[in-house]
Amino acid sequence: DINQLIDSSPGVIIRENGGLGSKFKLSLNGLSENQVRYFIDDIPMESFGSALTLDNFPVNLIKRIDIYKGVVPVSLGADALGGAINIATPALDEDFVDVAYSIGSFNTQRASLFAHNSDDQGRFLRISSFYNSSDNDYYMDDVLTTDDLGNVIGTERVKRFHDEYWSGMFSVKSGVANTDLADELSLNITYAENRNNEQHPDNSINNVYGGFHSRNNTLLASVTYKETFGNLKLKSYLLAGEITETHYDTQARDYEWDGSYNDITGSQGEFRNLSIFERKDKVLRSNVSVDLAVNNTDKVSVNLSVNDLSRSGHDEIDEFNDGFSDTNEMTKAVLGLAYQINSQDKKISVSTFSKQYWFDAQVNTNPADDLLEEVIEHQSRESEAGYGATANYVLSTNTQLKVSYEKAYRLPEADEILGTGKYVLVNANLVAEKSNNINLGLSLANTFSDIYFNSEFNAFYREADDFIKYKGNGGPTGQYENLTSVRIQGLETSFSLLTNSLYSLSVNATYQDMIDLSRVDSDGKVIDVYGDRLTNEPYLFANLRAGAQFHTPKYNEINVYWQTNYVHSYFLYPESLGDSSTKKDIPSQLTHDIDVDYSFASGKYNVALTINNILDEAVFDNFNIQKPGRAFYLKFRYFN
């Protein structure tokens, strides 16, 4: 999937809470979750539902991945704090059929279909779809066992028994491209669905579930219009959709890790009270972007992006679970203006920009939280102005220097401020993150005979106020809160080598120091973690990938790749609290993977074998939750 591809990029680490379909956390230059924005063909993917996340998309559906570190172009209309990832699909004049199917460990199956056809009049039809499923029934080590009174009596090796996941998507896009009418005028309709059986909460394995699960349905429709008028390029889209997420807690049982259970009397379910809770989001997004070439060297860009969401919900069983019975509303808007100057010799490029952010939310707190009968309405409004500049200097044919500064803002997301109705509680007092970001990068490339090498060095520094971070409440739930001040600084480096166009080596490493400089919490209480690293965040990681390519006399191709990943240990709880020698940490991990693929008939037919975690190491990730051990996957692909 796309996450596996991104995870090998410099400065990027992806942590998962388990197997296929589990929650994941992507970090880019010290920023993670909603601080990094995701796009597909320039359309933001936020609030698209759990069936349309990066780990669901197979790589067959994309052409390239653009990773922006530091400043995000104004054309994306994003309120990212320091990074964005844009998934680009093939051009609309490329005709092809791409079919893939893979099978692997834990009864994992993945299939995809991607087809595009166009005619001489510029009319086109594109169909894309995928299906993923897995039992995720891998073994977990050292799980605590308890007696009838709840006392810990030892540990055991257990097999997950209620973690099945499946997801599917079907999308059709049709219109015209590269005609007198428009560069592109298209209509795209997407439907996605999934089911996620949950073995335990996202942040702990101490609560075991045997029936609790969720379902997601997403329906999206969008219209895209792009046209060139002389020196002016116009890009725009309008998207509307409805996302329904339903949580089923219908078993009055208390499960153990061996699959046994005790019946519970009363209205208590596995998670909370017996419940079938349906949450419905209605989204409406629009974006207009204009690029004007002033002359041969200068360009002006203007972009306006508006994102509106309304969230409602109801419970079929629990009449007291009415947190979204009154609709919550949230609107974000970003206006960006940029001016880019290029020198005549193209060696120097400078861009200055400003962004205006607006945020308006109506939040209705759940009366069940404080036993009040009336709904409490909160109105949150913010208006902020950001600005910055980027510069790129070509020092020589093979060397480039890049530097950027931005006063950035990141507005709260729906799940953060409104809550989810499940693990994330509402926080109506959440405010936008603010950060001064500096990035400095140097890239070197050269060719010696049949050897090509490329290396990059990047340093980043961020001073963030009102930093938004998830905080658990000691149980399966928690909420996002603002940390007063956080300093993030780090270095990343990468090196790649290609010899004879047959043998390749790439190595990258990242060190990121994320320090909590808050002296008081959001309630004004003095806290004791000043100067600590942020918890549950890795600060040192690296990976290596080596490959060899072989050709047969009939022009068939064999590729072999070896990949090693390393993550240094990091604390799960504040390092200054308690005895560091006995404090719970997420241990260092070193894993190895191998990929072998065979391509024949000029790339029309492809077979690939992947072995993950060859040595079957016990690997722990987000919130110290164990991930799958050794796994085998076989993939078949037809492309024409």
| Mean pLDDT, all residues | 91
Number of strands: 35
Class per helix and strand makeup: mainly beta
Beta strand %: over 45%
What gap, in angstroms, lies between the N and C termini?
Answer: 21 Å
Helical content band: under 10%
Radius of gyration: 25 Å
Shape: globular
Largest sheet: 22 strands, antiparallel, barrel
Total of helices: 3
The poorly predicted ranges are 368-372
Helices and strands in order, then pairings?
Elements: H1 2-6, E1 12-16, E2 24-28, E3 31-32, E4 37-40, E5 43-44, E6 64-69, E7 83-88, E8 96-104, E9 108-118, E10 123-134, E11 139-146, E12 152-159, E13 165-177, E14 184-197, E15 213-229, E16 232-249, E17 253-255, E18 261-263, E19 275-293, E20 298-315, E21 328-342, E22 348-365, H2 367-370, E23 376-396, E24 399-410, H3 414-418, E25 433-448, E26 451-472, E27 478-499, E28 503-516, E29 540-551, E30 557-567, E31 570-571, E32 585-586, E33 589-600, E34 605-612, E35 631-639
Parallel strand pairs: 4-7
Antiparallel strand pairs: 1-2, 2-3, 4-5, 6-7, 8-9, 8-35, 9-10, 10-13, 11-12, 13-14, 14-15, 15-16, 16-19, 17-18, 19-20, 20-21, 21-22, 22-23, 23-24, 24-25, 25-26, 26-27, 27-28, 28-29, 29-30, 30-33, 31-32, 33-34, 34-35
